[in-house]
Amino acid sequence: MKKLIYIAFIVSFCMNMAKAQSANDHMFPAAEGAKPYINYDTRGFIINGKRTFIVSAGLEYARIPHQLWHDRLLRLKRAGFNCVEFYTFWNFHEPHEGQFDFSGDHDLNAFLKEVKSLDMYAIARVGPYYCAEWDFGGYPIWLRFKPDVLVRQPNAAFEKYVDRFFDHLLPVISSNQINHGGAVILVQLENEHPDGWGTVMPNSYFTFLQKKAIDEGIEVPYFFSGLHHGSDPAGKTAPLDDPKRPNPWLTTEFWSVWYNYYSSSQKDADDYGRRTWKIIAHGGNGYNYYMAHGGTNFGYTNNDEDAASYDYGAAVGQTGDLRPIYYQFKRNALFAQSFADILENSADATVAYKDFVADTSVHVTARNGEHGDIVFLDNPGKKTIAGHTIQGDEFTLAPGEIMPIVRKYALAPGVILNHAMTRILGINKQGDVTTIVTYGKAGTGGKLYFSPSDEFVPTVSAPGFSNTSRGTLVKVFFNEQIPTIYAFKCAGQTVKIIALSTALADRTWFVEHDNSNYIITGPEYVSDISRTGKDLKMNTETFWNEGHHYPIWLFSGSNEQMMDEPGSRSNQNKTYTFSGNWQYRNASAAAAVNFDDSKWLQSKPALQMGADNDNTADAWYRTTADVKVSGAYTLKMKGGDRAIVFVDNTRAAAGDIHKKPLQISLIKGKHTIAIFTAHDGREKLYDYVGSVQDTDAKGIVGNIVLQKGGAAPATVELTNWRMKGGPGDFSATGKWQQLPSGKAFDRPVFYKNTFVLPAMNAGSDAILRVVPVGMGHGSVWVNGHNLGRYPEKIPISGLYIPECWLKAGVNSVVVYDEDGKAPGKVALRVEKVASRDMATVSFSNNSK
After folding, report:
1. At what angle do helices 69-78 and 108-117 cross, to 10 degrees?
2. What are 222-263's pLDDT values in tens digits?
3. Can you tell me the distance from the alpha carbon of 559 to that of 632, in angstroms, rounded to the nearest whole number?
4. Residue 348 and residue 340: Cα distance in Å, rounded?
5. Helices 266-281 & 324-338, crossing angle to 10 degrees?
6. Which helix (DSSP H) or strand (DSSP E) does residue 84 occupy?
7. What angle do CA 517, 523, 527 make, to 5 degrees?
8. Strand 799-800, strand 749-757: pairing
9. H or E, element range at 273
10. Is the backbone of residue 297 left (phi > 0), alpha (psi -120 to 50) or beta?
11. Which of 45, 346, 362, 632 is close enough to 369 for a disulfide, judged by CB 3.0 to 4.6 Å?
């Protein structure tokens, strides 16, 4: 039943999304001064004067420690992404009113500089609303205590606070625009607003946002809310390009996979790869995967649909691991970028190719541009198509596969690729050498036809060259283990063809460094490279779950070198355990009768969480009750989510406030009532407009009574509350005590332990998680860093520890369990699918 409800929700959600944005997918043009740097026409984007296909990766810098920004961005760049898209969560930068944070993990300027250093572009989504399965949709908690604020509509109070935030945010975006030497090429105002997408501006709130952006110096193209959000943005097979639209077709949220997933399968890779080919084949000019890397909800940033992990089933996993979908997206991206001069300036040419394939089970779509044609062969069925031919050349299409056939392409000056009956990974150009990387199933082959044939001079003695009426034919063969190399000279140009098995193509990397382009084949991943003189060094990674090692090939212009990859050096059976017995510290002093709460926030009715400027997921409330009649009482209160009630320091009741009232027994007399409350994340407020003052209130709220029924009914009104948010400071001076084995508590408790690590990054990198087996609800800190909330709501059992937060030697772990469960089964786990061996490989005397 749950699965059916979930599917129904997704269908309804997607239909509403489609309806919301169907009226407009336009964008406002760049200011005149920015147009030489970022511009567009109906057919495509033009960046720095060059036709550019935008292959964008959604990720949030707020979900990645700043020490790992470079690593995660580089993993995306290696997959062919040339752009990143991100949110600028308001509550991440102004968590307390008027206190702005743009430093460390919050340093947006440094993040954008890192994007630029990798020669990537950026799409900034500045809000002020974000969604994103982020706590409260990105609104600061303090905003809900402004009674005159109505969000996302014409409202002077709301606009005042947005204006102040944008005064700090937008200058960072503005100074990093591409026309100022930065990375930002597009800006999105608002997000998924129910009334205005694209260039629709239904009221003065939108006018306010537009004016503010312009006043703060936004000069690149911008738009409202988003463009073409969905899990299959291309939809049916109709062309996406529309001559009536003033700008190119772009999807800013191509959902892949979904926020309740962890990891992705080969089926996901096939499904989303097909949906990406549809965009490319039908005239789309760019796409942004949401998410390409999900990351982590550190601290208390999760909403009520998730906990610490925001993996999303993304191409680059929460821990930096690479999934099957990563390698498929790499194939899509490298192809789209390699043939951007066609795709960003083309028209639908399907009619011209209607007889290209005789069998109607193959659907044909084609694009035509001044630089050539691309014909897409589509097998929409569930069975393999084999044995069909195009002008005598056989081809095979897997179920659901879309295969692009490049034709009449101006490959290099004077060299035409007439017809490529093969899958092309990408094209690399260096000086007068142009390299085509082609791939296919091991043991099979492909064909490429070139002209002019009368100037064709093979320079590699590999078989497969012949003259035909369609041009000079090069037959290529896909070897399972090693590249097969073909090369020729024509019209003063050198053309090299590298033929690879599909498995080897997935381990092939197009790398730019020091004004040189390289193709590297063999490593499972290539991270940073450097050059000392003529020696080129590259850092490679092999994931522990990868059992096969390939030789490494380096292709540099007309040169190539091969060497054996170093074998695995790690002890993959290594385990890590805690160093000693658990210690504990009381986290429930506030339940005591004589506890001093004089400095806490005081109010007559109970105030919801956050009223005291605390942004955590926990809060204590205290008051006294004068009970005239002994008996069983029902505690009637509003709020959420969970509560533990203490009467005179004794636990009296616990449960979910949303589900049913709590029952407690009281004897006649005066009592100290202490209520501990905790929540699992606030709503993201999707599609919401209006007051946020009472939406999804947490803690306990308003008038609270104890009500007794039966023969002697009685009511006790609870007033004069004191409240304080937060779990308390476990780092403060205080005594930790040894925890007796198996001991548990009936209230919140801090637990502490340590573990020891060897020297970090010494040839291997074990990815660690803290697995809170047997615990209730709470948070985990490692070396003072809050890893986020547990229990997880997706199928992953532990909380990821970013490598940058670990250190050689002793590391500390603190677990705050709101339910007081015993920590005896809490463990450290090595996530082998993400753990990797690292090696530095050097190539000497290669030419630049």
Report:
1. 30
2. 999 999 999 999 998 789 999 889 999 999 999 999 999 999
3. 86
4. 15
5. 20
6. strand 83-87
7. 60
8. unpaired
9. helix 266-281
10. beta
11. 346
